[in-house]
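Predict the 3D structure for this chain.
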Amino acid sequence: MKKIWAIRKDAEAVSPVIATILMVAITVVLAAVLYVMVLGFGGTSTTTPAATYAKTTATNGQKISILSITKTDVPWDDVKVQLSDGTNFAEWDTVTTDLDGGGALTKNYTTDTLGSLTVCLLVTDVSGNGFVSGTDYFVVYTYGGATGFSAGSSYSAALIYTVTGEKMGTGQTFTG
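Done. Predicted structure below.
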């Protein structure tokens, strides 16, 4: 039997320069793949800290105490206080500089409307460090003629983490 293929004598392999470039390119691609696998694709993810609350009756309103929070470095700038009657919302943007200065600091924020009620917010940073902590509290109260929240109506007060737009914990409900 006779072989039908011919051996070419002029065939050369890839040049050494091209071979080196290919090896470097393959190494870079493998390093990039490993980097993405180890550190995760798409950057860092942000989770909403969880908080627990307790309520006590205050003059014309409710004092909502923050009992605990899962993240200790949440500045007041990243928090919004929200009060809801199930249909309407009153919201206040808190400011770190209002609550940062050492010692207990209290800030009274402007009024907002909640249905037919005019409501106010009073925030106290007990440590005065500008961060939300497990000792801080806020008071939501009615203003301008109303002597409290509407009897029999349910309300919910919560902190909203503005970074994610989600509630910090389930919030605190109360009845007027």
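Residues 59 and 141 are 7 Å apart (CA to CA).
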